[in-house]
Each structure stands twice: as structure tokens, then as C-alpha cells.
């Protein structure tokens, strides 16, 4: 059997010699693959505590010793020793933050030198050193200190891989790293160690050992990637007279046409001195920096090149710019993208050539530029076009120009420096639907507060008063509110708090764009719930603030909003009867709101935009918001135990509320409030003139003087409006007076029927099922056609100021009761008798009937009775009888049992019924 196997084996291998030869070849091959000549040989060991000189390391012959210790924290510096000699250490004062290096000529084995690279700040100097300075086969020894990765970009890491590193890709913030590598060494063959940061700083790495040179198989590493075309290598395209311009350039200049191309399809073009030098298929025109260099002394093109700074780092471009003579002129056009790997050093070099915009170049932006080395100031031949928010292609640019041989820069930028708001662009890419805010024409607008222009208000308390924004669901309206707030002069953005429903996370990021604080609120289905939570949140965030300004949803603030609040704040602090300052006037319609300097005291709770006292919140609202404030503000908040609390409002509103739609039962009321033209102040600085008269007692005195100085309006004043049912009339006021008053009748304190009818004549809409807003003790004030008008109801405490003789204010008549009785009828007849039954009176009475259809039957009977009286003298006795009945029933007392003053014959007292 063995013999058979032997014969079979020899038959195939011929003889033992062939077998031995094959075996030796196989063994030799594997030995070669694992030999030191292929992989290099090294030994590494940890350092054990010792008092001996750690730099002294014993190594076999033909090997080189090393000792490396990385830094630890910021006070323990790195040490690098080579061949038993210390080259980098704190003692030598050459150890610094970043990467500390020792460099050895791989061929002569001599030390080239040491150098540190602060890659915490920048890495272009390290890239350049590794790429262009060090010769082939150079051995590098690196030790990190402090922090080395903050600006260690991937390009730089890739270059360290060309020196054999593999772990460098895993290095992170404050990790420690040591490495021995060689230029051209395959990645992964370097001696390297990495220690991760688990606390503030990673622990030190300390190693010593021996290594061979070369350290393994070495491959040549090209130092220059970009081909610079010059002389005969430059291809000339078509000849273009004046580079496409109509006129010939002056003798001291040359013609230029630059075109950035369109998207990534239409290639860029550069024409210089009437020759096309860069275009599709011509001189490597393409992605990145397309550059033509002109020698003004020789008056010819010197260099043409394309630097693809999308794919490669910008080291070649930087060196190219540095080496150009001072007089040379560069023409640069960016196409597709040139920003991804364009280093900060390259941008700085272009600044030196006169660029004012290169710092803003980002992904897919296009840019053209003509500059000259050492130019004084900024070049006038530069423009940038930004990519769209979703990285869409920017608009193309082109330039036709005559460029002087000696360029003159400007000390200031020729145009406002283009600015790119990357944070805003990122937001717009992430969230859709922000139409104007993310429009390409506005997306790079700077968001910053406006400086204070009122020097006398510097340091005013208003600028440390918190402003709380309570956004709704309309995101575009939220942006509008933010923008009108940031435009307030002197605003401190850190005092603005946005309280947003947790469903709308984007409002948090939007607030950060404006520099505002923000807080999340638990989710709610109703805006009123959001508002109540925001009010509580505001006082939690700003517990020491005496006042807080609240801004409701969908508001636009007037330019002087803060200035208005600042002027009003002192009286709010002084008068305990004032609850708040409101920036919105319910009655501020286009025809009834004209005086921007005028303020009123009113009984309404503040609305939309208001400044609230802390003591009011603490005493009346905290823990009670569900009871007092669970409606929209225009529906009325009812705070208990406040009998005489009032609010200051402006005649002309300082906030504008965008038209509001609702499907609730309040739709008609909301339309009345928000769907008619309103007046909002647009001036930046309006001085308020009656602030000192807004105290409780001072205001009463001011109102009394106002009404005494007012000219009462007669019945005839309203005839045309009432006759034609006009909602607004251009009145001819009877006298050139500043103040006018109207005294109108009421059935009771809650009856505003007559007021509703009369105010329509001035363009003031009062909903017929709602109590009028803006009242102060039954007094309603507004401005119209430059005049101040005061409407005084019969139940107002000011009604006694009504003139006794000769003047009666227009109204549609009303009755004291819904059911007519003998006493009431007699009183009405008595009044009719005094006033005389005229056609005008009848018209006013019919006006009342039109507006009270549910009482038409009663009014018709009363009207017939009065008409019959004046047509039939037989009723005279009945009238006298009715008067006696009135006296018997207590005509000497008013409806509340109070004694009435007897009015002179032919005049109307405050309790008379009929035309007041």
C-alpha cells in the first residue's frame, strides 16, 4: 500500500528534488510576506513607574528607540524622545495644545525638526505641512495635548492616514492620541494608540519601544493634485470682441466677461482680453474654483486652473495664491460647489486680494470675483448668489467689465455685505409653510434688535420688563408677531419669553432664531387654556418682576409699542385702582380713532396686548384663572372683588390683530371687532400728553372739565344719518369746537340701544347683543374728524351735566318699562307736550321702532296716542288727568325712590322720558 502511494506521489512530482523545491518556494514566500523588509519590525511596551531616564531605551541593532507620552488635561504636557534624546517637552518649552510632532528623514535617518499644530483652532497648517513640506518616506511622531479635534477636519485625518494612521478617524473631543508613522505607509501600519475621554480629559498615554525604518511598504504620495496651465498648455477658445461688450475698453484696462453657469448643467465661462479661456471642455473648467490669472505688465494671461475644492482640500489653491506676484490680477468663478473643502486660510488669502464676500460662501453658492494681490480696500468686481434653503440651485451671475491694470479698492464695501443666515436656512429646510419668512428674498435677513434711539429712556424699567408671547396655531402669524417685537427700539431679547403648546416644537426653534427664551406648556385643545397656563408660567419664570407684558396670538405691534408702555408705566405704578395698560382699543375703528397721543380710563379688562401688575395677578388671578379668565378676552374676563378697577387704553391702538375667523356663536361679534378697518399707530415716537391726568381723582376732574367745555349736539345733527340709515356720515359740526357731547336716554343702566344707533353714524360698530366696550361710568369717548366726542348715558354719573335749556341730544325714544301703564303714558304725553310734536321728532321715534322690532306694537300704540293728542284737543283734558295721576303715584321721586329736582319749564331733566 505504501509502495503504491509512493509511486503515485512520484509520478506526479517526478522526484524528491521537485518536491523539496516546491516546499522551499512556499516557505520562502510566506517568510517574505512576514519579513521585516515588508512590514517593518517594532516593539512597544508600557512604562512602569521608574526613577530612571525614560528617554533611554535599549533597542536591537539597526532599530530606533522612542519614548512618547501624551499630555493629560491642560497642565501635564507631552514628551517625545527619539534615539535616547528628548525633543519635545515642557522643559524644552516647545509643547503646546493640539498635535506636537517630531519629523525624521526616512532616508538619512536624521531629525528634520519639531513643530506643533493647534488643531483646536485650525488644521490647514498641518494639512499643508503633511502634503507639501515633508518629503517622501518622512517619519512622523505625534503626541496630543489638551484638545486636538475641534477643527481637525476629515481632509486632515485623510492625510494622517497616508502616514499609516487608522485610529485618527476615531479621535473625538479631548481624547488622547500618539502615533509613529511614515509618509506613504499603508493605513493601519503605524504605531498608534488612542485613549477616549471618559470625564473632562482622557488619561495620558505613555509608551516606549523600538521600530525599523522603513516601517513597512512605502507608496509614493503625490503632493500636488491640481494642474496649473501656463504658456503653451493654455488652450484659447473663440475670440470675442471686447468680451461681448459694445464699447472698447480704455488703454489702461482689459475686457472681462465672467459667467457662473446655471445649476450643474450650463458650465461657467471666463473671457479675458477678448479670448474665451474657460468654458465646457476648455482648460478643465468645471466644479469648484475656476481661475484665470492676468499679468498686467506683460498684458497677457499667465495661468489658468481649476481647483476642485468640493473634492480636494484647498491647500494647492492656497499655495497658488501665495506664490503669485503682487501685481497679478485673478478672475475667479465658482461653479456647482466650491465651499465644502475651502479652508479658512484660502478665504483669508482671497480677502487679501480684495474680497469682501468670500467668508459667506457656502454649499452650492455661486460667486465671481476679480482681485489683485495687496489691493488697498475691497474690490468693486464681486458678487455672490446664495443657494436656496433646500440646497436648490442659486440664480446665476455674470459680469461684463473693463478691469484696470492697477485696481483701486474702496475703503468701504461697494455694496452692503451679503449675509447668509445659516441657522434660519436650516429652520426653513426643516419646517414648511413659512411663506414670507423663508422666502429666498428674505431668508438671509439679519434678525437682531433695534438700538435705542430715545436717549432719555436709556436704562428705563420697561427694558427689563418681561414680554410673554402666547402663540396660536397660525405659524406665519407667529413669525409676524416675533418680527414686530424684535423691531422695538431698545428691546432686550432675553426678556422675551415664548410659551408654546408642546404640540408645536418648531416654535421653540423659531424663538431661538430671534434670541428669545421659550418654555413648553402641556398640550391643550383651547387657546384660552394655553393662555392661562402661560400667565402662570410667566410669573414662575420672572417672579421678581412688578409687571409683565402679555402678547396674544396673531398680533402685530406698532413701532412705538414699548415707548407707549414706558410712558404709561409710571401712572400704573402710582394708582392702585389701575389694573393694567392695554395697547388695544376696542373702539379703534378707522373713523373713531385718530389721536395717537390720547389715553382713556375704561372699565374693560385689558385685551390682546397688555401690561399686567404683579399684585393684580397675585391677589385676584393666581389659582383663580379657571373662574375669571376661561374665555377669550374679548368675551370678557370677570375678576371678582374688583369694584372700581380700570385699565388705560390708547385712542389709537398699539397692536393690530389679524382678521379672525370662528365658527362659534360669536362669529358676528368677532366680525364686528376684527373685520372692519381699524387704525393702528405707525409712528415710531409718539409722546402721550395726558398721562398725568389718568389718576383716579385727576381723571374725574379732567372729565368734568371736558364735558363742561363740550358743545352738545342737537337732534337735527343726526337727522340725515337716521333718515337714510347711513352707517357713517361726513358731518358738518355746528361750531369750530374741539369737544362735542351727546346725551342719550336709557331704559336702564344696561340699555345701550340708542348709543348703538347713534354711534353707527360715526362709523363705530357696537354689537346689538353686547355691552359696549370702552365705557367709564357710562361715558363713551372716541375721536372723529379731528374732534373728541363724549357720549353720556342717562344712567351715567355725568348725566347731570346735560344742559337744561335749548339743547337736546338725538335719540330714538324709549320707555321706562316694556309694558305701558297709565303713569308711564302720562309721563310720555307730558314730555311730548313740552317738546312739541314735530316731523323730526316723529322720524327719531320711528328710528327707535326699526331697531326694536319686538316692541313695535307697543310703540305704535303710543305713537298713535301722541298723534291723536295733537290732532284732537279733546285729549288735553286726558293729558292733564294723566299728569295728576303721575303726581299721585309719586312723580316727585325717581325710579329708585330718590327725590327728584323740579326742572324749569321748557327744559329736560335727567329723569324725563322722551327725546333727551
TrEMBL record:
Pfam family, one: GNT-I
Organism domain of life: Eukaryota
Main localization, broad class: Golgi
Cofactor requirements of the protein: Mn(2+)
One BP term from GO: protein O-linked glycosylation via N-acetyl-galactosamine
Location of this chain's protein in the cell: Golgi apparatus membrane
GO molecular function, one term: metal ion binding
Gene Ontology CC annotations of this record: Golgi membrane
InterPro entries, A to Z: Glyco_trans_13 (IPR004139), ILEI/PANDER_dom (IPR039477), Nucleotide-diphossugar_trans (IPR029044), O-linked_mannose_GnT (IPR052463)
PROSITE patterns the record matches: GG_LECTIN
Residues annotated as transmembrane: 12-33
Membrane topology term: Single-pass type II membrane protein
Range of residues in the leader sequence: none
Family: Belongs to the glycosyltransferase 13 family.
UniProt protein name: Protein O-linked-mannose beta-1,2-N-acetylglucosaminyltransferase 1-like
Organism of derivation: Octopus vulgaris (Common octopus)
Upper classification of the organism: Eukaryota, Metazoa, Spiralia, Lophotrochozoa, Mollusca
Amino acid at each position: 500500500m505504501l509502495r503504491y502511494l509512493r509511486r503515485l506521489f512520484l509520478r506526479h512530482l517526478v522526484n524528491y528534488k521537485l518536491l523539496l523545491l516546491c516546499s522551499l518556494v512556499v516557505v520562502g514566500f510566506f517568510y517574505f510576506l512576514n519579513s521585516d523588509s515588508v512590514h517593518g519590525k517594532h516593539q512597544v511596551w508600557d512604562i512602569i513607574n521608574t526613577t530612571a531616564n525614560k528617554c533611554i531605551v535599549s533597542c536591537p541593532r539597526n532599530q530606533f528607540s522612542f519614548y512618547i507620552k501624551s499630555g493629560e488635561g491642560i497642565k501635564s504636557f507631552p514628551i517625545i524622545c527619539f534615539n535616547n534624546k528628548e525633543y519635545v517637552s515642557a522643559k524644552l518649552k516647545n509643547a503646546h495644545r493640539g498635535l506636537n510632532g517630531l519629523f525624521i528623514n526616512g532616508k538619512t535617518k536624521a531629525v528634520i525638526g519639531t513643530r506643533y499644530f493647534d488643531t483646536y483652532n485650525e488644521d490647514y497648517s498641518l494639512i499643508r505641512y503633511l502634503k507639501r513640506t515633508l518629503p517622501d518616506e518622512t517619519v512622523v511622531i505625534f503626541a496630543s495635548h489638551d484638545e486636538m479635534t475641534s477643527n481637525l477636519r476629515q481632509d486632515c485625518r485623510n492625510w494622517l492616514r497616508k502616514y499609516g494612521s487608522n485610529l485618527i478617524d476615531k479621535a473625538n473631543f479631548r481624547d488622547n492620541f500618539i502615533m509613529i508613522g511614515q509618509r506613504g505607509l499603508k493605513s493601519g501600519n503605524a504605531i498608534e494608540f488612542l485613549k477616549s475621554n471618559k470625564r473632562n480629559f482622557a488619561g495620558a498615554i505613555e509608551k516606549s519601544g523600538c521600530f525599523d525604518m522603513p516601517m513597512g511598504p512605502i507608496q509614493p504620495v503625490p503632493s500636488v493634485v491640481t494642474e496649473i496651465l501656463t504658456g503653451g498648455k493654455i488652450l484659447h477658445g473663440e475670440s470675442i470682441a471686447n468680451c461681448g461688450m459694445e464699447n472698447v475698453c480704455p488703454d489702461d484696462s482689459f475686457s472681462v466677461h465672467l459667467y457662473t453657469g446655471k445649476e450643474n448643467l450650463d458650465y461657467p465661462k471666463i473671457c479675458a482680453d477678448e479670448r474665451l479661456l474657460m468654458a465646457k471642455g476648455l482648460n478643465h473648467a468645471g466644479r469648484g474654483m475656476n481661475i484665470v490669472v492676468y499679468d498686467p505688465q506683460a498684458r497677457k494671461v499667465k495661468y489658468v486652473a481649476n481647483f476642485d475644492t468640493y473634492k480636494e482640500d484647498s491647500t494647492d489653491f492656497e499655495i497658488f495664491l501665495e506664490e503669485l506676484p503682487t501685481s497679478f490680477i485673478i478672475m475667479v468663478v465658482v461653479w456647482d460647489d466650491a465651499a465644502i473643502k475651502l479652508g479658512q486660510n484660502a478665504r483669508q488669502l482671497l480677502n487679501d486680494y480684495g474680497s469682501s464676500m468670500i467668508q459667506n460662501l457656502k454649499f452650492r453658492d455661486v460667486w465671481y470675483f476679480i482681485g489683485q494681490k495687496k489691493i488697498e480696500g475691497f474690490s468693486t468686481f464681486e458678487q455672490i448668489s446664495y443657494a436656496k434653503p433646500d440646497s436648490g440651485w442659486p440664480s446665476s451671475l455674470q459680469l461684463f467689465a473693463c478691469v484696470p491694470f492697477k485696481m483701486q479698492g474702496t475703503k468701504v464695501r461697494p455694496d452692503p455685505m451679503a449675509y447668509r443666515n445659516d441657522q434660519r436656512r436650516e429652520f426653513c429646510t426643516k419646517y414648511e409653510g413659512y411663506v414670507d419668512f423663508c422666502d429666498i428674498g428674505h431668508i438671509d435677513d439679519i434678525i437682531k434688535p433695534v438700538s435705542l434711539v430715545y436717549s432719555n429712556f436709556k436704562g428705563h424699567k420697561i427694558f427689563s420688563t418681561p414680554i410673554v408671547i402666547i402663540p396660536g396655531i397660525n405659524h406665519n402669524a407667529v413669525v409676524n408677531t416675533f418680527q414686530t417685537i424684535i423691531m422695538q427700539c431698545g428691546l432686550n431679547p432675553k426678556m422675551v419669553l415664548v410659551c408654546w403648546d408642546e404640540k408645536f416644537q418648531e416654535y421653540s426653534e423659531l424663538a431661538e432664531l430671534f434670541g428669545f427664551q421659550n418654555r413648553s406648556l402641556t398640550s391643550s385643545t383651547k387657546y384660552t387654556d394655553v393662555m392661562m397656563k402661560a400667565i402662570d408660567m410667566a410669573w414662575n419664570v420672572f417672579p421678581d418682576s412688578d409687571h409683565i407684558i402679555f402678547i396674544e396670538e396673531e398680533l402685530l405691534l406698532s413701532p412705538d409699542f414699548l415707548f407707549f408702555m414706558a410712558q404709561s408705566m409710571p401712572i400704573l405704578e402710582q394708582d392702585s385702582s389701575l389694573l393694567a395698560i392695554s395697547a388695544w382699543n376696542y373702539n379703534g375703528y378707522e373713523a373713531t380713532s385718530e389721536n395717537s397721543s390720547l389715553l382713556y380710563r375704561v372699565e374693560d379688562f385689558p385685551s390682546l396686548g397688555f401690561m399686567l401688575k404683579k399684585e393684580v395677578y397675585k391677589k385676584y388671578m393666581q389659582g383663580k384663572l379657571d373662574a375669571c379668565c376661561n374665555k377669550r378676552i374679548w368675551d370678557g374676563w370677570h375678576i371678582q372683588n374688583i369694584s372700581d378697577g380700570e385699565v388705560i387704553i390708547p385712542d389709537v391702538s398699539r397692536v393690530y390683530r389679524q382678521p379672525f375667523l370662528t365658527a362659534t356663536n360669536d362669529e358676528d361679534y368677532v366680525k364686528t371687532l376684527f373685520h372692519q378697518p381699524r387704525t393702528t399707530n405707525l409712528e415710531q415716537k409718539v409722546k402721550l400728553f395726558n398721562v398725568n391726568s389718568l389718576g383716579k381723582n385727576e381723571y374725574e376732574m379732567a372729565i368734568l372739565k371736558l364735558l363742561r367745555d363740550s358743545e352738545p349736539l342737537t337732534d337735527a345733527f343726526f337727522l340725515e344719518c337716521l333718515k337714510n340709515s347711513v352707517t357713517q356720515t361726513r358731518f358738518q359740526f355746528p361750531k369750530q369746537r374741539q369737544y362735542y357731547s351727546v346725551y342719550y336716554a336709557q331704559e336702564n343702566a344696561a340699555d345701550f340701544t340708542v348709543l348703538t344707533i347713534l354711534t353707527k353714524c360715526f362709523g363705530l360698530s357696537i354689537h346689538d347683543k353686547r355691552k359696549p366696550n370702552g365705557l367709564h361710568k357710562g361715558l363713551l369717548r372716541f375721536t372723529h374728524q379731528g374732534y373728541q366726542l363724549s357720549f353720556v348715558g342717562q344712567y351715567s354719573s355725568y348725566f347731570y351735566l346735560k344742559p337744561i335749556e335749548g339743547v337736546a341730544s338725538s335719540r330714538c325714544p324709549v320707555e321706562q318699562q316694556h309694558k305701558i301703564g297709565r303713569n308711564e303714558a302720562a309721563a310720555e304725553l307730558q314730555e311730548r307736550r313740552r317738546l312739541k310734536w314735530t316731523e323730526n321728532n316723529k322720524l327719531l321715534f320711528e328710528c327707535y321702532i326699526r331697531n326694536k322690532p319686538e316692541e313695535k306694537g307697543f310703540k305704535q300704540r303710543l305713537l298713535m296716542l301722541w298723534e291723536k293728542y295733537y290732532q284732537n284737543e279733546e285729549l288735553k283734558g286726558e293729558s292733564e288727568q294723566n299728569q295728576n295721576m303721575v303726581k299721585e303715584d309719586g312723580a316727585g321721586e325717581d325710579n329708585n325712590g330718590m327725590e327728584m329736582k323740579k326742572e324749569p319749564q321748557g327744559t329736560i331733566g335727567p329723569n324725563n322720558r322722551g327725546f333727551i
